[in-house]
Design a protein that fits this description.
alpha/beta
Amino acid sequence: MDVESLRKDLEQHRQGHLLQFWEDLSAGEQKTLYEDVSSIDLDRVCQYFGKATTGLKEASTKTDDRLEPVPESVCGSTSRMKASEQKELFDNGLRLIAEGKVAALLLAGGQGTRLGVPYPKGMYNVQLPSAKTLYQLQAERLLKLQELAFKLTSQRGVIPWYIMTSEHTQDKTVRFFQEHNYFGLGAENVVVFEQHMLPCFTFEGKIILGEKHKVSRAPDGNGGLYSALGSADVISDMRRRGVACMHVYCVDNILVKMADPVFVGFCHGRSADCGAKVVEKAVPTEAVGVVCQVDGHYEVVEYSEIAMTTAERRTDDGRLTFNAGNICNHYFTTDFIESIVKEHDNELQHHVAKKKIPFVNDEGAVTTPSTPNGIKMEKFVFDVFQFSKQFAVLEVLREDEFSPLKNGPSAAKDSPATCRTALLNLHYRWVLAAGGKFLDEEGTVLPLIPARSSSMPHTRDIDCEVSPLASYGGEGLDDLCAGQLFTAPIHVVPGRIIKEEELLGARPAKQGKAE
């Protein structure tokens, strides 16, 4: 170990404090710290810090004068689309799946810390009747899509599933899939790769020590996808399989329709190299980024960067002018992704996230701050929109496709309970659309929309779960449900419905437990 050369290099970059406890360390700890610090490209990360903090100051200036809504010519909407058009898009997407041209790419670097669990978010169970985790729900949706594609075309296409993890979620995710036999997808079709980590900085630009012998690091954001794809050579794997396009999404949306044939068919039919699914922004103050144009380039602009007068602007039909709410649900061609990896990744700006980061104080004790004391630098996956030559936007219904799991059980919003309700209500609507009806305890037919009012008896979730193996998006349920009367709970599985009497006594797993 050339400690003096390392010390000199650190001093040149104003990071000499990283060795301040060197003499207190054991030989093993010194080796760990030396390797840890030596692995940091100081020129690069200090440059990232400088650009990110400069960008933060620039971002404080509103961009209103440079904003334009997404042109109608690149937009579509499932709610305003004819059923025949949607069916055509769905079938076109299935044909691409049957040909092996579609992949799903999951951004799964997030821990379940805010949920109160020590494992990856994808392993979380929101206490569905089936006790399925997010990972299992998503895996089964892919299996069902492959089945639907085969039924349409008689071709057995595979949807390879690429999963980007972080240092915190990699080992547990791999082990979870191994223990569950990859949920029937095949180990060869589930490709797990790890995103990079970056040092955490103080507001003054000092790299933070998390322990005396270890630098504090954090994942480089979901926009770290592109550098991770390059270093793991995932593009080569996609090319070998013949993947032409992919659906990229975040792990925490319980309603996500991975490799959605309608979305894939929509984007592919427009020869788009890049596409975004959006939901209509509910109110001007909703804390969600907006897909729009800035200086003629497509971007996602955070709600905090738009003045209220601009956020409140409306079109002639009363809708918000800037209403395309981003839900981190994207389409990319393999060619586009490869161009980002090879040509544009270094152009992507790091963003600043102010956080409470545990640190080693001057006395050598690990301290957990009560207020933000530093920054984590991260890229955003959608920052590549600016490089698109042919962009497409598909608006979908929030109640059908977007319910994120962000907060713990006690939260009123984006919690396990709200996710559970969103999925069960969606499945309830599927059964109703297929001709089924539900009765309450007294034999009265329940309303079409579950009500929540003190003056009405129907104030609980209707426990109606449809296995993804039985239906991907509500299709194929008529034979099981038409003309039938049900008393919740029910669980629709392939070929049959498990009714209340069979489910009695079958308790879901404890909240959040990964089975």
